[in-house]
């Protein structure tokens, strides 16, 4: 039943964005561990729903998997709808629980210290890395049937969040970017970066994956 896949994508994206909001809008001690919690949330949701919907939970991943040929455009568009709606619902749930409480942490991105090009490059690189890992660990013939793909995907986000999170906010996911915007954790400029850089990173990862024949569908030239 096709709609069930979209529900699974909604659930996974919801818990990913919800974890982002609940950890980032927490006292400093919890915020320091936010990348680990966020990457773990993605990992467990990938393991939970990966066998059913593919466990994308990220419009950039959906784009990459579609360009790779493992998802149809007929599914990609409803996936995007489910993911973006889930992000907004998750953001609303975080705001309901946390509210705009006095003393809530400021957005994690320092708009003065880093240029928009630094944000863009950081988001592009780690979204590329994330989609590259997804394609190689979850769609390639050489890794077919493996049990490590969830760990690989989740910990790519952990690494990226620790490495570039202080610069760009570490979304690596347009749906997470939208959720962060709704929660007041990112401004409209960062939202634009999350949409453009993250989709571009996913597309470039898929292009390279296909060009090199990494899926095992054809031998590289």
Write up what this structure looks like.
The chain is mostly helical and 221 residues long. It has a single domain (2-100, 110-211), classed as Glycerol uptake facilitator protein (Up-down Bundle). It is built from 9 helices and no strands. The longest helix is centred in the middle third of the chain and has 26 residues, at 73-98. The model is unreliable at 101-106 (pLDDT under 50).
Short description:
The chain is an all-alpha fold. It is 72% helix and 0% strand. It contains nine helices and no strands.
Order of SSEs: HHHHHHHHH
The rounded distance between the terminal residues' Cα atoms is 39 Å
Summed over residues and divided by their number, the pLDDT gives a mean of 90
- For the record, the count of structural domains works out to 1
- CATH class descriptor: Mainly Alpha
CATH superfamily: Glycerol uptake facilitator protein
Task: Give the overall shape.
Answer: globular
Strand content: under 5%
CATH architecture: Up-down Bundle
Low-confidence stretches: 101-106
Could you describe the largest sheet, including whether it forms a barrel? none
Q: Can you give the helix content as a percent range? A: over 70%
What is the CATH T-level topology? Glycerol uptake facilitator protein
Number of strands: 0
Number of helices: 9
Structural class: mainly alpha
Q: In angstroms, what is the radius of gyration? A: 16 Å
């Amino acid at each position: 039943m096709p709609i069930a896949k979209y529900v699974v994508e909604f659930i996974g994206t919801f818990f990913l964005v919800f974890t982002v909001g609940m950890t980032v809008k927490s006292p400093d001690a919890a915020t320091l561990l936010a990348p680990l919690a966020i990457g773990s949330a993605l990992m467990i949701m990938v393991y939970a729903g990966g066998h059913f919907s593919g466990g994308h939970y990220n419009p950039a991943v959906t784009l990459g998997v579609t360009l790779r040929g493992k998802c149809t455009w007929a599914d990609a568009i409803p996936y995007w709808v489910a993911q973006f709606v889930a992000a907004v619902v998750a953001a609303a749930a975080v705001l309901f629980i946390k509210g705009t409480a006095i003393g809530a942490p400021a957005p994690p991105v320092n708009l003065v210290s880093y240029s928009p090009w630094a944000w863009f490059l950081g988001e592009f690189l780690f979204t590329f890395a994330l989609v590259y890992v997804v394609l190689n660990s979850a769609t390639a013939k050489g890794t077919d049937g493996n049990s490590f793909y969830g760990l690989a995907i989740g910990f790519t986000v952990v690494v990226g969040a620790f490495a570039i999170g202080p610069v760009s906010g570490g979304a690596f996911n347009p749906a997470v970017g939208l959720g962060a915007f709704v929660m007041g954790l990112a401004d409209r400029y960062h939202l634009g970066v999350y949409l453009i850089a993250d989709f571009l990173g996913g597309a470039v990862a898929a292009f390279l994956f296909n060009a090199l024949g990494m899926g095992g569908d054809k031998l590289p030239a």
